Amino acid sequence: MTRKLGGARTGWLAGAVLLWAQSGCTQSDEPEPSPFGSAPVVAGCEDEVLPDDGLLVMPEGVDVAEEPATCAQAEASRSYVGCDFWPTVTGNVVDPNYEFVVAVANTGTQAALVSITRAGLPYAEIEISPNSIRKIELPWVDELKGAVEAIGTAVPSASVLDGAYHLTSSVPVTAYQFNPLRYTGELEPSYTNDASLLIPSHALTGTYSVTGYPGWHNDGFALLGPFVAITGTEDNTTVEVKLSATGNLVSGGVVVGNPGAGSQTRFTLARGQVVQLFGTAFADLSGSLVLADKPIQVISGIPCTYVPSNMEACDHLEEIVMPLESWGRHYFVGLPSGALGDRADEVIRFYGAVDGTELQYPTGAKPNGAPDRLSAGEVVTVWDTSEGFEVLASEAFAINTFLQGAVLDVRTLAGDPAQSLVSSVEQYRKHYVFIAPTDYLVQEVYLDGTIGPFQSGNFVDITHELGTSLVLDGVSVSELPDGTSVVGRDESIGCSNYVTTRIRLSDTFEGAHVLKAGSPVGIQVIGYGEFTSYQYPGGLNVTAIADFGDIR
User: Fold this and answer.
1) What stretches of 55-131 adopt beta strand conformation (E)?
2) Diameter over CA atoms, the chain
3) Does 102 or 183 have the greater pLDDT score?
4) Measured distance between the N- and C-terminal CA atoms of the chain, rounded to whole angstroms
5) CA nearest 282: which of 263, 302, 264?
6) pTM
7) Helices marked H in 82-189 — which ranges?
8) Mean pLDDT across 293-320
9) CA atoms of 275 and 126, how far apart (whole Å)
């Protein structure tokens, strides 16, 4: 499938700001031609070019340095901050005694009056103070959640009128959904959790390419298939799903029969209606196009899976799928914090949107198996990551990361698969308000069999330019102690001038945290418990920086 991309390097992306080399990286005298633009060659970094850093030019009248104070300003700024959201239950085999929760953060200076309804019926009316978070428990939608004992069965696709919750606020807020939030229980832990950033309605579009994970099967045995949950925000929305070369669907709801690779499924959504499409355990819906004539929300995931497919234990995956218009060309990917504060391994997936997309890794070694080119709808999985890396592409593409099974770290047996999207540099921000549930705790198992004390299993990983000022919960990160709080300070990403700082989060403020930075940064929020984990991007801008033309 051929897709045209116009304007990816002009308009929204402007300027030619070079990333000058850090110590150990020197500039060569001889430039070489590149599809990424003119830039100096970096000696000692595989002789590749340093990229244009994707300087973002905002629409006239929008100041990226300020948080929006009104709903109208939020719509103009196009970020994860807004006044209208659609929390949506997705498939999970977790015990229903663990609650589906939407967390709402007020990033502004005025109190937020928040309302949550479903099918026109009120579920919550709350007031949220400035720079604070409220966690709101919502009933499961059984037709979307599915059964606890679903493993090993073909979960049917479903269509649920008024299946989504509708969240509105008087002033701009941010919203995240936890499926479920709580980890600890009276008898046993939940074992299968994940979280997803929610995007406000004004930033949603009708153009998506699925960024997900394959179905779960092992040694030929089918276990669980992946899903794509599509939520309508307006009545009479026409949706067309064009399956990728690896996609197929299980019948149910709007799906008749078992559509296979390359086929198309069309249906109409009402406002608040959810269609959850399930593939078979041998399917991968990634790279499938989801197109609509009005704004829709798309979440991808799987009720439970191993990562890798033969490595315990099973955990729920879900993450918001970003509109294609917001995909970037420039990414930094650092190794995530592990349960004990060291760096963990992860699986990385690259998602192509345009035929002939060229990728370079300009300031460090390319990961084993990482692509040099991507085609439209192509997905490349990298299983072996030993260090962080920078990647730059000639066209827009996406990256998601996946935490691995807990048995890979016998020191804790904490963690399990979780899915998160990586924000492109073009969509970094200076201000984040995010949540980390306080009951995620870990213990170290020592070589002599003794067990250490409980400590917080929550972390925030911050990707930033070296020297950027960082203030977390009112305290300068430069003043936080190494080891107990800062578990990784200014960890290099190749020889770029971007680094990762990783912080173990305290249990203050009921899990609510505020990060302010001197220049735009990207963050990942990660939590570990016994045989479970969650991960999500703490926020990002959703500016339309890529024009895909007529992708239909």
Assistant:
1) 82-85, 100-106, 112-118, 121-128
2) 67
3) 102
4) 10
5) 302
6) 0.87
7) 142-145
8) 86
9) 29
The DSSP H or E segment spanning 75 is: helix 71-77
Mean pLDDT calculated for residue range 406-426: 75
The span from the CA of 169 to the CA of 429, in Å, is: 22
Q: Is the previous residue joined to 308 through a cis bond, with omega within 30 degrees of 0?
A: yes
Q: Three-class SS string for 290-305? A: EEEEEEEEEEEEEEEE
Length of the chain: 552
Q: How confident is the model at residue 43 (pLDDT cuts 50, 70, 90)?
A: very low
Contact indicator for 19, 551 with CB cutoff of 8 Å:
no
Alpha-carbon torsion 135, 136, 139, 145, what sign? negative
Q: Kindly give the pairing relationship between strand 112-118 and strand 166-178.
A: antiparallel
| Distance between CA atoms of residues 458 and 142, nearest Å | 29
Strands (E), 225-342: 227-232, 237-242, 264-269, 274-278, 289-305, 315-320, 328-333
CA distance 133 to 538: 13
Give the tokens for residue 130.
């400035």
CB 99 within 8 A of CB 179: no
Q: Judge whether residue 423 has pLDDT over 50.
A: yes
Structure tokens at 4: 């045209």
Q: With contact defined as beta carbons under 8 Å apart, do 273 and 265 qualify?
A: no
Grouping H, G, I as helix, E, B as strand and the rest as coil, residue 169 is: strand
What distance in Å separates the CA atoms of residue 349 and residue 400, rounded to the nearest whole number? 5
